[in-house]
Amino acid sequence: MSLPTAARWVDRWEQQQQRYAVDREERFTVIADVVEHVTADRPTPRILDLGCGPGSLPARLSKRLPHARIVAVDMDPLLLELARTRHPDAARYVETTIGTPGWVSALQLSGQLDAVVSTTALHYLPEDILRRTYAELTPLLRDGGVLINADHLSQDGGATTAEITAHVGHRRAERQQAYAHEDWESWWTAIEQEPELAELLAVRRQRGVAHANGCALTVTRHLQLLREAGFAQAGSVWQIGNSCVIVAIHEQSANAQEWVAHRTRPSTTGRPGMQRS
């Protein structure tokens, strides 16, 4: 894939996504603010991005934190190739499906993470897979590390409250003329006509890559699942309408610290327990 082709489609993706994510750029900034805060004393922050798409979040994080080492994962071969071509230095990109058996091993992480981030991706996971995913991520984080999930999440407080919350976000999007941008279906219909991407599109179709509607868990339920997974604290740090950023903080137990030490100490064969990222 050529850089001009990747740049054209990624830039068009950025415009399309503004239609759906209320105050999308501000939400990206909030994620970067949180990561910057929790890694202030870390010379080389280690970050994992879940559901990176064409590299929107890694691109922004790498500008704010140029010394960070970012691993970005997605299941879509087309979007990943757009990311690798458009933002090649922002992250190390990994193709795997979050929540499936062996997906963590596929990341080939080295040492502990300072932050796990995700934006508009985890709502695709059914509750049982999300619960397991949160539990799998917990031991990967250092003491004081964070999981940041930015997404459109259902609100608590009853149907009327949820309706008002959604209305507030909708009206803000109208004021920002977000609905003037093309929609999701139009973007995918258009890219299907791109000759240079025909092979990647064929691979995508062959693998049956599709973004399901997912489950509609409330913010409170997400926070409950995070605490059940071992995060000591969890709460919302930013919200406009039903677009919000939740943050969970990990505090390691003695057992988790021993697990990490075992996974990262050199083996008797001279090979490290985990590969470098």
Question: What does this molecule look like?
Answer:
This protein has 277 residues and is an alpha/beta fold. The protein is 43% helix and 19% strand. The protein has eleven helices and seven strands. The protein has helices at 3-17, 24-38, 56-64, 77-86, 103-106, 127-137, 159-175, 184-191, 198-207, 219-228, 254-264, and strands at 46-50, 69-74, 92-95, 113-119, 141-152, 231-240, 243-250. The longest helix is centred in the middle third of the chain and has 17 residues, at 159-175. The model is unreliable at 254-277 (pLDDT under 50).
Major beta sheet, strand line-up: 3-2-1-4-5-7-6
Class based on secondary structure composition and strand pairing: alpha/beta
Silhouette: globular
Rounded to the nearest angstrom, the radius of gyration is: 19 Å
Termini separation comes to 24 Å
- Total of DSSP H or I helical runs spanning 4+ residues: 11
**Main beta-sheet strand count, sense and barrel state:** 7 strands, mixed
Low-confidence stretches: 254-277
